[in-house]
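2024-03-11 09:14:02 DEBUG pipeline.ingest accepted 1 chain
2024-03-11 09:14:02 DEBUG pipeline.ingest length=250
2024-03-11 09:14:03 DEBUG pipeline.predict start
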Amino acid sequence: MKIDPNSKADLSAQIAGAIRDAIISGALIMDSRLPSEAELAENFAVSRPTVREALKRLAAQSLIRTQRGAFGGAFVNRLSYEEAYNHHITTSTLLLGMNGVSFDTACEARFALERACAVLSAERRTPDHLATMRVETLRQAQPGLSDEAFCASDVAFHRALVDGADNPVLSYQLAGAVEAMQPLMNMITFTARSRKEIVRLHTCIADASEARNSAAVAEALTELETYTKMLAQSVFAAKAQAAIADGVAP
């Protein structure tokens, strides 16, 4: 494991990257003990505080764990899909927010990915997945439900649909699409949406899932995508009109 001392990149980030690459390549296997801080400092020709910072970066990514005691040290972690969800969601949220991805682009990606799960979900969903979709649809129809609670229920509904595919790789990949994109979309469209219409579409999805009709699930998702994009367009148009009325460039 080597780093470039002449690089402008932070040394601790370089060390963390080198160790991460060794883990990914299999040079460092799961549950193996990393060299000590002193050994790593000597190997990378840096100070121990720099090594310590690199290890903190890796621990924050759940790539390593530390243990105290005579047999302690830093060990390569056995990362699970569930543990990686939060990192993936955070990264997706930051990418969308920092790179100015358009609403239509995000919406298109999110529903294309979700439709990709429709066939498998319709075939493999369990009674529990279906029950979750039904419960969340009923919750969304409750009068007086706050926007925050409606959004959380919306995410839970689509999470159940995705998880119904019984494919951990798909669930991980769509964690960002559903749990990062959905709240952002709700944030933009909540003032214009009809909860009744969303409940209707969610009911169609749940009905199709119960009948194991993947084509009908995909069709309802496409209808939901079209409705979501229409809501965003109406919100953006209203904001533009308000800006013109206030004499401000939209």
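2024-03-11 09:14:41 DEBUG pipeline.report Strands lie at 64-67, 73-76.
2024-03-11 09:14:41 DEBUG pipeline.predict end
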